[in-house]
Amino acid sequence: MSLLIGILTVILIGTSIFLVFVVLMQRAKTDSGMGAAMGGGSMESAFGAETSNVLTGATIKAAILFFLISFALYLAHIYQAKHHDAGDVKLPTVVAPAAPSASPAPIKAPSTQPTTPPPGEQKKP
User: Is 8 exposed, middle or buried (0-12, 13-18, 19+ CB in 10 A)?
Assistant: First the structure.
């Protein structure tokens, strides 16, 4: 699924760049603007008098393609998020058994007699 998302993202970036250039090449209604600087005159010689119709049609088709790819990417990310979270919840399984431990040393019980003599008794030399 991530491969499809990557491919759609590259196509979306290409469509975005194409859409920006097509919009910038169109002539403004006052015949001054970026259209003349971006090659508006050469477009007339290539497509004839119908240059505005060709650029308008390309803009409409690129905009539709842009929105369709954006919506498909949105749905793909939602699908990946819902199905990706279910796999992460599981804990890894341990296949190796635990090694047997050595027998522990016996624990000595604490003695009930005090180690120091009571203060009233004195040691004999």
Answer: middle
Cβ atoms of 73 and 5 within 8 Å: the answer is yes
Q: How many CB atoms lie within 10 A of CB 79?
A: 13
Percentage of residues of the chain with pLDDT beyond 70: 54
Looking up tokens 């058994």 gives 97
Gyration radius of the chain's alpha carbons: 40
Mean pLDDT of 118-122: 64
pLDDT per position as a tens digit, 39-55: 555 655 566 666 678 88
Beta strands in the chain (DSSP E): none
Q: List the chain domain ranges.
A: 2-88
Kindly state the DSSP code that residue 125 receives in the 8-state scheme.
-
